[in-house]
Amino acid sequence: LSVLLSLLVPAHTTRSPDCGGILTPSGLSYRKSGPRNSHAISREGRQQHLSVRRNQINSIKVAELSLSLIPDTGLRLSSNVDFSITPTLSTTKVMRLSILVDLQVEMNPEGNLELVTSACKPTVEEMQSTEEKESQSSSSDVDEEINIDKICLEVSKLLLLPNEELMSLTAQFPVTPSCQVQYLPLAAPVFSEQGITISLQTTFQVAGMVIPLPVSPVPFSMPEPASSSPSHLTLAFSEHFYTSLFFALEIAGAFNMTIPSPLTTATMAQKITQMGSLFQEDLPVTLQAVFRSSPRVVLEEGKGALKLFLTVHIGAGSPAFQSFLSVNVDMSAGLLLSIADIRMMISAAVIEDIELSLAASDVGPVPAALLEELFLPTIREEVPAQMNVVLSEGVFLPHISSFTYTDVNVTIHKDYVLVPCNLELRARTG
To answer: What angle do CA 312, 317, 318 make, to 5 degrees?
Structure first.
């Protein structure tokens, strides 16, 4: 396999996306409103990361947390945190810390997306005090009690968890034991009023080696989302994405099939007389199918088709398989797509079209009608069934570790598939 991979054409040097996603403003709103965000801020405050000097924090509460898009720039995080402190035994003060942070998403040298702060402006004001009005602290007193300089440093620490989640986007996921898929961002996301658009390029590894994928005949770009879409996220996959997936599985040998047949050499000899001279005893007939050309996926409006180009070797004998017929098979199957959790489920449906033609024969000429009579029912049934066993685990979608997808709708368009869905925060123990 390593030799085969090394002989493949070099990988194309121009990097282009074959899938991606658009996180909508409603998805962004859901993302920031998760309980973990407020808990993180509260936890940091309780550990005195708000830098209160010589004072005890009694309570802390995130009063407001908002995250908004700034088109062409990034995000703006606004947070109001109320907390009470006791500067003296007889005094309790309720303070409000307001933080305004501008965020950008950049690509780091390792190729991962990273959330960074580009501006940070904290302000602190006293909301309530048990002291008499005339003895309330001045603003300078507040500045002495709260170390504002350190607040932005602590805000940046709160980005550690989101950045860990962003790193999980580029993890390798198994498709089969010898084949892994990985989604790599090509550039920093694009921020617009419609949402945050990320363009991704799919890579596959077979036996630990990155395989060069066929070049997409049509450059892919993320389609514009519907402005009225209520979904949190819209994923898009190009026709080339699916063709690359089947190409990788073919290179990995996942679709090489051994197909049992109801025929034996004796029953075939009744139809093809020269069979009798090849086999002196009655043996079960077996079919071995390999791809003579890579599978191809064709997407049209509302439907998808999987084009298969096989050579089926027909023979008998075990363990020494002796082939006496080879048949070229061109077939087209409907492509079924659905989403389960964070995986795309792909299956070949009913065979819509199939053609058999003789490729090689050790038993003389065999009419096309006889080939179809003997082998077509078995090939029609077994080829999609065995491919579906390979595909049954599904293919991991681009995702970050803490979320799963719900309320999913898969829509096939010409040349691409759209998957609008909602986000759901996974429960995390510990």
So the answer is: 105
* Count of Cβ atoms closer than 10 Å to residue 90 Cβ: 8
Q: Provide the strand spans (E) within 10-132.
A: 19-23, 56-70, 74-88, 91-107, 113-129
The mean pLDDT values, 10 residues at a time, for the chain of 430 residues are 46 70 87 51 47 59 83 89 75 83 91 90 78 47 58 83 89 94 93 91 93 83 74 94 95 92 93 86 93 93 95 90 94 95 93 92 92 94 94 94 91 95 75
Contact residues for 135 (Cβ-Cβ < 8 A; gap 6+): none
Using an 8 Å Cβ cutoff, are 413 and 301 in contact?
yes
DSSP string, 142-195: HHHHB-HHHHHHHHHHTTHHHHHHHHHTT-EEEEETTEEEEEEE-SSPEEETTE
Q: How far is the C-alpha of 179 from the C-alpha of 220, rounded, in Å?
A: 24
Is 90 in a helix, a strand, or coil? coil
Residues 49, 157: contact at Cβ < 8 Å? yes
Query: pTM of this prediction?
Result: 0.83
Q: What is the distance between the alpha carbons of residues 312 and 378, in angstroms, rounded to a whole number?
A: 11
Burial of 357 (0-12, 13-18, 19+ CB in 10 A): exposed
Please report which helix (H) or strand (E) contains residue 381, including its range.
helix 368-391
